[in-house]
Amino acid sequence: MKGSLILIALISLASSASAFVVAPRAARWALPALRAEEEDASDFVGAEAVSALTKDVKTVFTLEDVHKILPHRYPFALIDKVIEYVPGKSAVGVKAISFNEPQFMGHFPERPIMPGVMQIEALAQLAGIVCLQMEGAEPGAVFFFAAVDGVKWKRPVVPGDQLVMEVEIKSWKSKFGIAKASGKGYVDGKLAVDVGSMTFALAK
């Protein structure tokens, strides 16, 4: 009887010892996860700091200004604001991409992507802001696409992105109301769309 009690005590002691050995191992496995959480917390900068990244970006034309120049309206008004502008030469504009826009209902329901043709249209509208303030044109006039060449898409543009575009007017024939321009669009500093040449004409 005494021998049985001693054996039970030894087994109990061994089990307790195993528990003390296993527990530190489990803790060691948990350490990397804890460190990762600490690193993630240290990377957090907050909304104010992120918002301040664009504090030096000035708005040249607000949305209301853009609507005074372009005839486009919802759901095809694709320029939210202009942040750089050189009369008769170039402009930089911004389009914030929102899931609430109607094209994403069908393009595509499970993977919303801004249609490439709408990216080109946005660039054309930005070029229109420059051209419709040049000699021989007037704000609010309607202009048509005549040609597009050398288009390359580099990455998808999706809801949540800000498409920052630039256009350069290559030629403007005020007598005929015909303009040629090139354009590029960027998301997070990376090229998304590149248009080598686009031609459009004022409606007569």
From TrEMBL:
SUPFAM superfamilies referenced in this protein's UniProt entry, alphabetically: Thioesterase/thiol ester dehydrase-isomerase (SSF54637)
Listed InterPro entries: FabA_FabZ (IPR013114), FabZ (IPR010084), HotDog_dom_sf (IPR029069)
GO molecular function term, any single one: (3R)-hydroxyacyl-[acyl-carrier-protein] dehydratase activity
Cellular component terms per the entry's GO annotation: cytoplasm; membrane
Keywords: Cytoplasm, Lipid A biosynthesis, Lipid biosynthesis, Lipid metabolism, Lyase, Signal
Signal peptide as annotated in the record: 1-19
Localization annotation: Cytoplasm
Superkingdom: Eukaryota
EC number: 4.2.1.59
GO term, biological process aspect, one: fatty acid biosynthetic process
Stated role: Involved in unsaturated fatty acids biosynthesis. Catalyzes the dehydration of short chain beta-hydroxyacyl-ACPs and long chain saturated and unsaturated beta-hydroxyacyl-ACPs.
PANTHER family linked to this entry: 3-HYDROXYACYL-[ACYL-CARRIER-PROTEIN] DEHYDRATASE (PTHR30272)
Designated name of the protein: 3-hydroxyacyl-[acyl-carrier-protein] dehydratase
Organism this protein belongs to: Florenciella parvula
